[in-house]
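Quick illustration, no need to memorize.
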Amino acid sequence: MLIERVLPPVAVGEDAHGDPPPAAGQQALFPAEEREIAGAGDKRRREFTTARRCARRALTRLGLAPVPISTGPTGAPAWPAGVTGSITHCDGYRAAAAARPPRPAARRPPRHPLGPPALQCQGVCLQGLFVRHAPRAPFRGR
């Protein structure tokens, strides 16, 4: 999967090239999602539907049941509680990434103000949302 090449290890990704029909017995959209996309054109409807199916497959890989993924007030996907993720689409490609952020451990004062550079986090951005759990290489300048 193309999307998994850019994700940190705690995240899972699912992608689709084009808009394949749903598998037998799989519903395309939940009623709440249908209402959100009701007035959209055919191209937007296909992108939305395939991207939501990718997102549900990612949730399944995290051990969660498929649920509607509605659009939040900013237009970003509203993920279930305890999950962070992102959905993206472009011409001929749709993808979703999801992760369960680790619970914060008891904190001790760091030795360095921001922690050792190798342990700081980097973000993988898909349409402006971040999954921040992958180690980042130390900054080496440009």
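DSSP finds two helices and five strands in the chain.
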